[in-house]
Design a protein that fits this description.
2 copies of one chain form a homodimer.
Chain A (H helix, E strand, L loop, with lengths): L12 E10 L6 H14 L4 E8 L4 E8 L2 H8 L2 H14 E18 L5
Antiparallel strand pairs in A: 1-3, 1-4, 2-3
Helix pairs in contact in A: 1-3
């Protein structure tokens, strides 16, 4: 299993789709804050996995997967996460879109040569 | 509005979250096929928008937004799209995860300096 893919269970489950454009002159602590949030999310009850990609232009999409809407609510309201959400608005992002969705169906493909 | 953000209506609506790892030695026609699929999707009934990012390691996430599950079904079964889905499995991707989800809530942020 590629660690960049989320090994999610059979649907239904929930997700947060977070699309953003990072500011060009980003401060050094973005990487630290981002890594810390990943570590913290993975410790939250109901966390199922996360997938993330950011292109060289600064557009990023992160999808985190959760057992329930309550798990998402707990994560959104976690004190340390609230601080970093504020940092995101004040300093890291030009814009973001955050969407909560219920995953209803999923299909996987692995090529013959995949690890 | 940044063209990289999907200007979606108020929820509920649907989305397809497509996460993939591209093969390293990708053939030249990937870019053409990808651009053509984008053009074609945008012409489909019920299409609401698309967001996409691929990082230098080859991990990409594309989220397309749709009015209904039927619109997604029509897109998935479009003849030209079926051909490219096959190309994707045969030649472009190490793996992918495709998830259909119902967007229930959405929030947007624009920084003061954003266009």
């Amino acid at each position: 299993m590629d660690p960049r893919a989320a090994d999610t269970p059979r649907p239904p489950y929930y997700c947060v789709i977070f699309t953003s454009r990072r500011k060009k002159h980003i401060e050094d602590d973005y990487g630290d804050a981002s890594a810390r949030m990943l570590e913290l999310a993975a410790q939250m009850p109901g966390f199922l996995g996360i997938e993330s990609a950011r292109d060289p232009e600064g557009i990023g999409i992160t999808v985190s997967y959760w057992e329930s809407e309550e798990a998402i609510k707990n994560w959104r309201e976690h004190a340390e996460h609230l601080v970093v959400q504020r940092m995101g608005r004040d300093r890291f992002y030009e814009w973001y879109e955050s969407r909560v969705a219920k995953v209803e169906r999923a299909t996987s493909f692995r090529s013959g040569g995949a690890a």
